[in-house]
Amino acid sequence: MSWLVTGGAGYIGAHIVRALATDGLTPVVLDDLSSGVASFVPDGVAFVRGSILNRELVESALRDHDVTGVIHVAGYKYAGVSVQRPLHTYEQNVDGTRVVLAAMAAANVTNLVFSSSAAVYGTPDVPLVTEDLPKRPASPYGESKLIGEWLIRDQGIATAGTEHPLRHTSLRYFNVVGSGDPSVYDVSPHNLFPIVFEKLIAGEVPRINGDDYDTPDGTNVRDYVHVADIASAHVVAARRLAAGEPVEPAYNLGSQNGLSVKEIMTAVARVTGVDFAPEIGPRRSGDPDRIVATGDLAARDLDWRMRYTVDEMVRSGWDARRAATAPA
């Protein structure tokens, strides 16, 4: 049973590829390497280099590898930058998803796990985000992910009752951290962990953006979830779809409790052995005090749970990042 992973050479996608293989499934990677890394694709895994915007290429990959389903991870994932690049964001995330759906329909591939985002909720004013909360995305990125969910929903409705009905689910998550393989690390220039790690490697002091929020220690509280747990949930969702088992339209992969930025910084200092006191900068516009999601539905259906402590999250990410620059 083979699954096409779009964006399979990226940080999250590469972990999903490994989780599929570990679970006895056959991953196929499609990635244009615009942000992915070729070396993240394991030896022996089929790799189709190209864009999800290329309908012919996507359809050929589905047919050539006798694909059972698609785990659609590829996309432009920088929420802040999406404000300056809305057209690019919509092209990659909305039109890209449309093309994937069209190629799937042409190739009669009927199972889809969509890597969505908690950005679809915007800045909710509730302590715990549940799947039925109103969607008010606050960036073109969040909007593009929500539209992607709508496209998938509508294609599911349109094909219901046909010979090849689309079965699908969307997984929404917040801050993905750590590493499940020392050869794969987070390369994003915008995520907290890699920002802090790069500062430490350069001998500089990391910064906290604001310490006067309405939280116990004054810094933002967010979900931080280990990438291996995220990958595992994608694989369970894929198996449920392929087996015809019921799934929800969307699941939050949340931590239930969250961690503050200051707690992350303290853990980084503790785990790395680098004694630092983070600088305190001004708030970033639009940053809410707290966004934390419940993962109750995913725990029920996708074996979702937090398997890693904050120290284990930091240690795995730090070790993988340092391994990337270690002498051969």
UniProtKB/TrEMBL annotation:
Keywords on record: Carbohydrate metabolism, Isomerase, NAD
Protein's GO biological process: galactose catabolic process via UDP-galactose, Leloir pathway
Catalytic activity reported: UDP-alpha-D-glucose = UDP-alpha-D-galactose
Domain of life: Bacteria
NAD-dependent epimerase/dehydratase domain segment(s): 3-254
Keyword NAD: yes
EC number: 5.1.3.2
Family matches, as NCBIfam families: galE (TIGR01179)
Protein name in the entry: UDP-glucose 4-epimerase
Originating organism: Microbacterium ginsengisoli
Gene this protein is translated from: galE
